[in-house]
Every structure is written in structure tokens, then in C-alpha cells.
Design brief:
The chain is mainly beta. It is 6% helix and 38% strand. The chain contains 1 helix and 8 strands; from the N terminus they run αββββββββ. The strands form 2 sheets. A 5-stranded antiparallel beta sheet has the order 6-5-4-7-8.
């Protein structure tokens, strides 16, 4: 039995993020009142509830904050992609992003390693997913 993988659903709040990924760019929100970047997309700034969020492009470069090697499928939709390298990347701009690592062997993964974005297009679903791969020597 084959399953289609679940894909994200674009909403009015998240559309700028997904639209940027389709252009192979990364845009996240910035709050002038907080003087910091914010992720996940939302309508008001966290902590202050200010209505000052603006979309800004970031490099997408980051550091591996945490990861796990899922040797058993996390669900039936992912039975054909084990091991799955689930990760949290801390962007240079501050926020953390849940993702997958690609083009790396599990034994080569290290907390604190530099990573760079990889844009994975799924035209049949009209979505681009953001993955990460090692950026090279630190």
C-alpha cells in the first residue's frame, strides 16, 4: 500500500513564507518592537502582541541545534524514507526551524555543525519544502 505524503496547507498568515520558498528564498517575520525575527508565521508579535510584523528575507544559513535519526517510520506516509533525519536548525537570524537533513550520513551529523538550505520542489503539490544539508567545514 502506498500513501501520499502530507503536505503543508498555505493560509493567509503563512502564504508569504511558502511563496518565498517557491522562489527559492526564505522570508520570515521581523518585529521592530522586539527588534528580532519571529518564526512561525503569526499575526501579532509574541510577548508584545504588537501589530508590527514585517516580512524580511534571510540567508537561511544556520547551525544544527538538535536532531534525531528516525530509523522507524514516523508514520505510514514515510515508510520508504528511513532513516529520516529530523532536525532543528537555529537560523543565524535567531529563530529555530524544524526540518529534515538531506545529503548527509547519520554518522556525519554533529550538533553545532553549520548547515545551508536546500529547496525541495514538489510541483505536483505546488509546494517547496525547506531542507538542510551540511555547509562544509566550520
Amino acid at each position: 500500500m502506498s500513501f501520499d505524503r502530507p503536505m503543508p496547507v498555505k493560509t493567509p498568515t503563512t502564504a508569504p513564507f511558502w511563496d518565498a520558498l517557491a522562489e527559492h528564498k526564505i522570508r520570515i517575520q521581523y518585529s521592530p518592537s522586539l527588534q528580532s525575527y519571529v518564526f512561525y508565521p503569526r499575526v501579532r508579535a509574541p510577548r508584545t502582541l504588537a501589530d508590527d510584523l514585517e516580512w524580511r528575507e534571510i540567508s537561511g544559513m544556520g547551525t544544527l541545534y538538535s536532531y534525531t535519526v528516525a530509523r522507524r517510520p514516523v508514520g505510514p506516509h514515510f515508510a520508504d524514507v528511513v532513516p529520516q533525519l529530523l532536525a532543528i536548525v537555529e537560523w543565524d537570524e535567531g529563530p529555530r526551524f524544524s526540518t529534515e537533513l538531506v545529503d548527509v550520513a547519520p554518522e556525519d551529523i554533529r550538533i553545532g555543525m553549520r548547515v545551508k538550505p536546500v529547496f525541495c520542489d514538489y510541483p505536483e503539490h505546488e509546494v517547496t519544502m525547506l531542507r538542510y544539508t551540511p555547509a562544509g567545514p566550520a
